[in-house]
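Fill in residues.
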């Protein structure tokens, strides 16, 4: 399983457009080689280099397994087409909020896609990353990561 973006390559810098210094929209993502027995997907975007510890930028779950990616600029709404749900990030907002690190060394942004053996994680829209992690514990079939960098 893989997660890719046409906005940046794995290990490369995320363009400013997708950050708080730009228009802060989500980059287009592509999901490939999803395992056949996948019932749903979930996506977490986080910055492990934040001064306060791991900082969550995006939480998405109950993604049908036939979804092959997301277009650029996903709506910042709790409930999307096809029953896709978005949670609350550490900016205390629904949907994607991009990199916004303090000045200094580059931060790493992990786009983590997980394939699950359950169709619905049992959470309403607006869940936190920790609630999602607890709900999917024991249900992960596969995992893929895309890492982007950003510095201010």
């Amino acid at each position: 399983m893989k997660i890719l973006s046409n906005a940046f390559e794995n290990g490369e810098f995320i363009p400013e457009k997708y950050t708080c210094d730009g228009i802060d929209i989500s980059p287009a993502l592509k999901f490939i080689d999803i395992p056949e027995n996948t019932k749903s997907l979930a996506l977490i975007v986080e910055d492990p280099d934040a001064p306060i510890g791991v900082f969550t930028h995006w939480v998405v779950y109950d993604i049908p397994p036939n979804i092959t990616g997301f277009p650029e600029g996903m709506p910042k709404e709790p409930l999307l087409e096809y029953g896709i749900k978005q949670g609350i990030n550490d900016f205390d907002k629904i949907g994607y909020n991009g990199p916004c690190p303090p000045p200094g060394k580059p931060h790493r942004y992990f786009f983590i896609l997980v394939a699950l053996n359950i169709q619905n994680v049992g959470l309403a829209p607006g869940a936190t990353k920790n609630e999602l992690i607890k709900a999917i514990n024991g249900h992960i079939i596969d995992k893929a990561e895309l890492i982007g960098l950003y510095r201010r």
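The first strand starts at residue 2 and ends at 4.
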